[in-house]
Amino acid sequence: QKEVEQNSGPLSVPEGAIASLNCTYSDRGSQSFFWYRQYSGKSPELIMFIYSNGDKEDGRFTAQLNKASQYVSLLIRDSQPSDSATYLCYTGGFKTIFGAGTRLFVKA
Amino acid sequence: DVKVTQSSRYLVKRTGEKVFLECVQDMDHENMFWYRQDPGLGLRLIYFSYDVKMKEKGDIPEGYSVSREKKERFSLILESASTNQTSMYLCASMPSGGSNTGELFFGEGSRLTVL
């Protein structure tokens, strides 16, 4: 069974801090990785995707991928209360496999 | 703006009823998906379709069927609803190929309660 695992949290950080969200996956064949944010009662929305080893930055968000360790992470710099949500990672492809999500709370 | 529309945001049905959840996308995407989302379990794939009239089982297809007669429309059917099918149902579409391969576009969700 191919799996994607995330720490369900909740992860609580103070406003302005760096939030670090982590995801491990079991399928070495996975090529693409996506981070979604989901506010309570809403549908998921894409934050970032990453295909290559290393870092990819977009504004306050940085995705990091290490295929050798089968690990992908999302860093949120200067965290804001509006970042409080559940963050889902998933590996792309037809048999889309999602992690259970990490709940993030940013305290003002 | 890309759009995936689910027919009903909230439904309440009784055990044994037949339930139809409809999803329409206007992006000409080949691939469409149905998930259910339950607390602590994340999104679980029920069925997906990569073309008209084509369907593939996901991780939890039992108790569900799907229909894709037109490219833009993907329907989820609960033949005989049960209380353990009370959940949030999310439809998504995904393009084939291109730089954004793998990106899912979600509908707003349909919260189904089975009494």
Could you describe the 3D structure shown?
The complex is a heterodimer of chains A (108) and B (115). By secondary structure, chain A is an all-beta fold. Helices cover 0% and strands 54% of the residues of chain A. In chain A, strands 2, 4, 5, 9, 10 and 11 form a 6-stranded mixed β-sheet that branches. In chain A, strands 1-3-8-7-6 form a 5-stranded antiparallel β-sheet, with no helix packed on it. In chain A, a hairpin with a 5-residue loop joins strand 9 and strand 10. Chain A starts with a strand and ends with a strand. In chain B, the strands form 2 sheets. In chain B, strands 2, 4, 5, 6, 9, 10 and 11 form a 7-stranded mixed β-sheet that branches. In chain B, strands 1-3-8-7 form a 4-stranded antiparallel β-sheet, with no helix packed on it. At the A-B interface, strand 5 and strand 10 of A face strand 4 and strand 5 of B.
Helix content of chain B: under 10%
C-alpha termini separation of chain B: 37 Å
The residue-averaged pLDDT of chain B reads 92
Number of strands of chain B: 11
Q: How many helices of chain A does DSSP assign?
A: 0
- Unreliable spans of chain A are none
